[in-house]
Amino acid sequence: MDRENLELRSTISADGALRLHLEPAVLPEPGPGQLLVRVEAAPINPSDLGLMFGPADMKSLAQDGQALTARIPDGAMPAMQARIGQSLPVGNEGAGTVIEAGPDQKHLLGRRVAMLGGAMYARLRLIEAKDCLVLPEGASAEEGAALFVNPLTALGFVETMRAEGHKAIVHAPAASNLGQMLVRICKADGIGLVNIVRSPEQVAMLRELGATHVVDSSTDSFLDDLTEAIAATGATLSFDAIGGGEMTSTILNAMEAVAARSMTGYDRYGSSVLKQGYIYGSLDTGPSVLRRGFGFSWRVGGWLLFHALQRLDPATVERMRQRVLAEMTTTFASHYIARITLEQALQPETVAAYMRKSTGAKYLLTP
Amino acid sequence: MDRENLELRSTISADGALRLHLEPAVLPEPGPGQLLVRVEAAPINPSDLGLMFGPADMKSLAQDGQALTARIPDGAMPAMQARIGQSLPVGNEGAGTVIEAGPDQKHLLGRRVAMLGGAMYARLRLIEAKDCLVLPEGASAEEGAALFVNPLTALGFVETMRAEGHKAIVHAPAASNLGQMLVRICKADGIGLVNIVRSPEQVAMLRELGATHVVDSSTDSFLDDLTEAIAATGATLSFDAIGGGEMTSTILNAMEAVAARSMTGYDRYGSSVLKQGYIYGSLDTGPSVLRRGFGFSWRVGGWLLFHALQRLDPATVERMRQRVLAEMTTTFASHYIARITLEQALQPETVAAYMRKSTGAKYLLTP
């Protein structure tokens, strides 16, 4: 059996050089509980890009044989100390076909599985069977490639809402694959959702999916539209994938303006309505700016799927996984604008394209 | 009995004019449960200044007979909508002597009481007896003037720490009256406390009080000193009265640097140690800037004494009140650099002095 692997690795050296290369290795035979999977599809998520390129200056991208190099700005190096010199595999999730199986897993030979656990940008992945979802017969690798990060994040938003006592959600930017899943979930479950998008085309796209409240941050009426949508839904919880800039601040201020409508008198400390903003991504790694016109009853925090899954009760998490499998070709379908190979992933012009991070323009790696 | 009152009022008009004046009124006789108190001392806290002057441009201060006027910048008016045209009394807390009492409160006649509830910048205050603490015989009005806001806030920080599972606290700026109380409480209770101050004089002052960790943000070694003090105490909770700027962000980044020391490998999402920053004041009303080098396990939020007292269990709150009374001349003693009358409080040069908000330079109103 051929167990020769090629694995995409990212390394940052002490002098600020980023290097991406394909590392050859021969994998061992799968042991008990393990599967050897031929990776057939793996999405390029923003979280993957963060690990691949870190804070590299993308203008410095250069080819070096089959490898790719870039410079890390000096100011960004302190935050990189913990990974200096480590050759890190990349790729949070993917799907593929089981080509070898541990002695207790032979029944899975030939089955297609969805996988979570890193190192998916590779020809092969040796993985614990428990970190896989076995896909229904006939499911394609593309259908199974992105069944963890986005679907569980979207469901995680809703479960966080329930656990923390909110009744509706504001999401920005909402036209992403994740945002589209959230629209479908909230529509099915009757949950109020305010979608913030960045263009009229995205407004039309989400309305097509059945979204009720879609506000366009590129218009002059954005603040008014946002405030009215928050008033209509009663949203006091937001999820922001941008991180840098003022989006969360803008949302909290709009929530406070809505809360102030039902206050009977002036209170210098603002409303007592708790406004919670979560930052779950860093599309903009710049500073988050909070213009605190929203009183003292507010919280902003980081939201990470892995932490949320640990906080939620296990029965809820199992219910989330089953729902993802049951609705993989509907609610949780992802869309890709291009398919690239491992080798193409290291070509500067391809990198420039998939780094654009523009909403909905997601790439699929097909090793 | 003379029940003629003079009460300091703050009003903002729709066209952006702030007006502070002394409002005469004749108060009614105290009813059941009520006391009529001659106000003898009331501190000028930053929270009082917020209500008195709002976001007024202090360069526009002008005298108008016995009143004082100033301009509110246009950009700040939207946040003032809820108070337009309302004549608001000022002064969160104070102390004085009971000169009349409701039929069921005659036993308190002549006693000195500490009061919470607003409208303390006045000659007289008609107040519910339950909103007072009866001071021990011989206690001065100055000793009793500030027994609510700062003492309960300092104790509230410690109870919040316990309730949320942290083991030590970072406080900035720490040389205030409140900060001094916190130093004494933490020393007595054996709680780790990192004090951030702004000058060598303040370092010396807090060390004199028995503080172990005092770091000076005006020095070049501030970041290193802060990080080492956080490492020494294990603090993962901070209270920041500045609000604007980067103080909370700086503290959270230092906490993350300490957490990273015990991480075994690189994690692109940062440490899983929850870092909580509370903003409890707005000495700087400008935007809070968060440079998110602290991973995804963090929260920043508003902290308000009144909300905290509602969240804590009643037995804890009663214990806090009893401790304040028992330690009023030691742990909870406040210091003032000047005493002014109601009329002086409306003179532009006096206003400029007490608005300086410089740490430790607190004024006492003695109507």
TrEMBL record, chains A, B:
Alphabetized SMART domains for the sequence: PKS_ER (SM00829)
A single MF term (Gene Ontology): NADPH binding
Keyword terms of this UniProt record: NADP, Oxidoreductase
Pfam families for the chain: ADH_N (PF08240), ADH_zinc_N (PF00107)
Residue intervals of the Enoyl reductase (ER) domain: 16-365
Keyword Membrane applies: no
PANTHER family from the UniProt entry: QUINONE OXIDOREDUCTASE PIG3, QUINONE OXIDOREDUCTASE PIG3-RELATED
UniProt name for this protein: NADH oxidase
Lineage of origin: Bacteria, Pseudomonadati, Pseudomonadota, Alphaproteobacteria, Rhodobacterales
